[in-house]
Amino acid sequence: MQAIRLVAPNAVHMSGYVEACREFAAAGRVNDGNAYNYDANWQARLLRKLKRDHLGLNYAPAIVPQSSFWLVKGNTYLGTGNIRHWLAPHLLLYGGHIVYSTRPAWRGQGLGTFLLGLLLPQATALNMPPALIICDHATPAPCKTMGKKDWP
Q1: Is residue 72 a contact partner of residue 11, using CB atoms and an 8 Å limit?
Q2: pTM of the entire predicted model
Q3: Contact 49, 32 (CB under 8 A)
Q4: Cα 63 to the chain's mean position, in Å?
Q5: Do 73 and 3 touch, CB atoms closer than 8 A?
Q6: Three-class SS of residue 87?
Q7: How large is the average pLDDT for residues 77-103?
Q8: Pick from 53, 14, 48, 21: nearest CA to 37
Q9: Rounded CA gap, 22 and 42, in Å?
Q10: Hey, which residues does 83 pair with through a beta bridge?
Q11: DSSP states of 49-80 as a string?
Q12: Rg of the chain over all Cα atoms, to the nearest angstrom
């Protein structure tokens, strides 16, 4: 049985990520910044950008760096988690440190809870203060996820 785990964004799981972007678009939600052209050039640029983001490179002072992680099972992409390294004032109210989403085709299986549980130790490893996670009540599933456990 293949374990579900977090990985850095990579070429092996890119096709699943692109499929998920299409699923989000079909559900009326654009994922990852209006990415409609998923060709090889776009994929390579995205991977480079995510690596720079993780390292905190090439940022203007007001731009918050973040680390991205993909939740995968074998070669199957299941979701994304992003951890912001610090918070600008507006993110204290409307964003928080951790943002995550489960691929629409894989929702309802507890993966959001699992993903959040894997992201919290990553936030600690980034030497962050206690992570602030904000729930948008327009999307009730993450609110339920946050209430399921006594998170560390």
Answers
A1: no
A2: 0.84
A3: no
A4: 17
A5: yes
A6: coil
A7: 88
A8: 21
A9: 14
A10: 67, 98
A11: HHHHHHHT-S--TTSPPEEEEEEEETTEEEEE
A12: 15
Q: Are 87 and 132 in contact (CB under 8 A)?
A: yes
Residue type, 77: Y
Phi, psi of 120 (to 5 degrees): -60, -45
In terms of Cβ atoms closer than 10 Å to its own Cβ (0-12, 13-18, 19+), residue 77 is buried
Burial tier of 22 (Cβ tally within 10 Å: 0-12, 13-18, 19+)? middle
Kindly list the distances between the CA atom of residue 98 and the CA atoms of 82, 118, 121, in Å, as whole numbers in the listed order.
6, 11, 11
Under DSSP, the state recorded for 102 is E
pLDDT for position 119: 93
Least confident of 76-80, 99-103, 106-110, 133-137: 133-137
Which of 129, 134, 119, 132 has the alpha carbon at shortest distance from 68?
Answer: 119
> Which residues on neighbouring strands pair with residue 98, listed in sequence order?
83
Number of H helices, E strands in the chain: 5, 4
Q: At what angle do helices 111-125 and 140-147 cross, to 10 degrees?
A: 70
Task: Classify residue 85 by burial, with Cβ atoms within 10 Å: 0-12, 13-18, 19+.
Answer: middle
